[in-house]
């Protein structure tokens, strides 16, 4: 056992001695007979004792995460592969997401799965081969949120011109809060500042920052703008501002958010998702409020420009009025009355003539209509000796002799007057 352990610990020995034994069928009495489980356990123990820890480089494939949180996958290169498992206790501390095809360095413990007799490695740590774990996690989350549109300019909210209530999410122990308060006091002292103290690094920092942004959004009356950030540090120190929970809290904020994390060269996910990115906490404070003196100078410039504009306009109005005063109308105002009076007389004359002309035409037209009616009127026939007979007393016109009976009374309409007669005879 000790020889085997030494050989395995040294890697691959230059010479390995194997004892030549005849087949079991020709042996008299075997020294030891193993069960399958015993043999697999021996192999497992030999591997774990010989290789307590190794580093393996390989490509990830066949990834599968179980509800337990354990991750099973295969590590492979161009010629071989080996099964691997990373238990939940180690997997939950990974900063980046495991993806098929990712080349990694794995800290592992070779072992065997006794029930199936399969060789495997138990992974306790993983590092990306081509970039650091934090940088890979940063790039993965950045790409994910960009695909969702959280970095789009169209969703960015403008900063208020003159905010009255400002929220600050940072640590009370860092230099950032002192720098922010100093700038705000110097540039615009009469502001209401609401500070929500949080941890800015460590395991709990991401939860506290996200909660602070959410809580400040619920304040009444609402805040005008939020400053979220901290002073400089390493990528590990700033990592809380690269967490997805913080990015989504900032993106969901109804209040405009200025991110101010680290120094000018530091970029975090919070910077990309915030409405405005400031290179430092001090710069964020300068962005959020205008300097009183600058504002006063600007107002003075606007006032002077307004006065000049009014004076120029007044001069133009004065010149216009002077021109009017010099005009013929102002010199002889009766000219307008005289001219308009003559125009009114002329209009009345034309109107009278028009009405007279229309009256004569209407009279002539009416006379023609009357003449036509006279020609068509049955009364005109009476004047030429004709008469109209109607039954008495209902007035029905008699057109045929058969309409009346002997002894019946009829009315005869003449040109002048009417006769009532009794029928004494009928001729058809």
Primary descriptors:
13 strands; OB fold (Dihydrolipoamide Acetyltransferase, E2P); five-stranded mixed beta barrel; Rossmann fold; alpha/beta; disordered N terminus; five-stranded parallel β-sheet; 4 domains; elongated; 428 residues
How would you describe this protein?
The protein has 13 helices and 13 strands. With 428 residues, it is α/β, with parallel strands linked by helices. The protein has 4 domains: 2-130, Nucleic acid-binding proteins (OB fold (Dihydrolipoamide Acetyltransferase, E2P)); 147-290, Rossmann fold (3-Layer(aba) Sandwich), CATH 3.40.50; 327-376; 382-422, no CATH class. A 5-stranded mixed barrel has the order 1-2-3-5-4. Strands 7-6-8-9-10 form a 5-stranded parallel β-sheet, sandwiched between helices. The longest helix has 43 residues, at 334-376. It is elongated.
For the sheet with most strands, the description reads: 5 strands, mixed, barrel
Helix share, percent: 40-55%
CATH topology of the largest domain: Rossmann fold
Which CATH top level class of the largest domain fits?
Alpha Beta
Output mean pLDDT.
83
Structure summarized in a few sentences:
The chain is an alpha/beta fold and 428 residues long. It has four domains: 2-130, OB fold (Dihydrolipoamide Acetyltransferase, E2P); 147-290, Rossmann fold, CATH 3.40.50; 327-376; 382-422, no CATH class.
């Amino acid at each position: 056992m000790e020889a085997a352990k030494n050989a395995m610990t040294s890697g691959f020995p230059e010479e390995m001695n194997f004892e030549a034994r005849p087949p079991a069928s020709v042996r008299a009495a075997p020294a030891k007979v193993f069960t399958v489980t015993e043999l697999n356990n021996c192999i497992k123990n030999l591997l774990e004792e010989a290789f307590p820890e190794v580093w393996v480089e390989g490509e990830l494939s066949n990834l599968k995460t179980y509800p337990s949180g354990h991750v099973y996958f295969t590590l492979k290169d161009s010629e071989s592969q080996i099964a691997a498992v990373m238990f939940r206790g180690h997997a939950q501390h990974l900063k980046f997401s495991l993806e098929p095809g990712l080349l990694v360095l794995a800290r592992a413990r070779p072992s065997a799965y006794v029930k199936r007799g399969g060789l495997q490695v138990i992974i306790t740590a993983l590092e990306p081969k081509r970039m650091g774990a934090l940088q890979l996690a940063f790039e993965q989350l950045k790409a994910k949120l960009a695909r969702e549109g959280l970095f789009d300019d169209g969703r960015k909210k403008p900063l208020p011109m003159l905010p009255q209530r400002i929220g600050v999410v940072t640590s009370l122990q860092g230099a950032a809060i002192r720098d922010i308060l100093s700038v705000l006091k110097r540039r615009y002292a009469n502001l209401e500042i609401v500070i929500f103290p949080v941890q800015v690094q460590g395991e709990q920092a991401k939860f506290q920052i996200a909660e602070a942004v959410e809580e400040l959004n619920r304040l009444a009356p609402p805040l005008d703008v939020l400053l979220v950030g901290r002073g400089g540090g390493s990528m590990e120190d700033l990592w809380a501002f690269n967490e997805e929970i913080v990015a989504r809290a900032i993106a969901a904020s109804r209040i405009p958010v200025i991110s101010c994390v680290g120094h000018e060269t530091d970029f975090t996910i919070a910077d990309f998702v915030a409405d405005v990115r400031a290179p430092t906490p001090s710069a964020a404070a300068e962005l959020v409020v205008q300097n009183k003196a600058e504002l006063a100078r600007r107002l003075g410039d606007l006032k002077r420009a307004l006065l000049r504009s009014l004076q120029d306009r007044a001069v133009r109005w004065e010149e216009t009025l002077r021109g009017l005063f010099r005009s013929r109308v102002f010199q002889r105002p009766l000219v307008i009355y005289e001219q308009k009076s003559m125009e009114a007389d002329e209009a009345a004359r034309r109107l009278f003539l028009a009405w007279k002309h229309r009256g004569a035409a209407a009279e002539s037209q009416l006379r023609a209509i009357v003449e036509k009616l006279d020609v068509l009127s049955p009364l005109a026939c009476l004047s030429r000796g004709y008469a109209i007979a109607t039954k008495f007393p209902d007035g029905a016109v008699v057109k045929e002799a058969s309409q009346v009976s002997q002894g019946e009374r009829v009315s005869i309409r003449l040109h002048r007057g009417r006769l009532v007669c009794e029928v004494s005879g009928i001729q058809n």
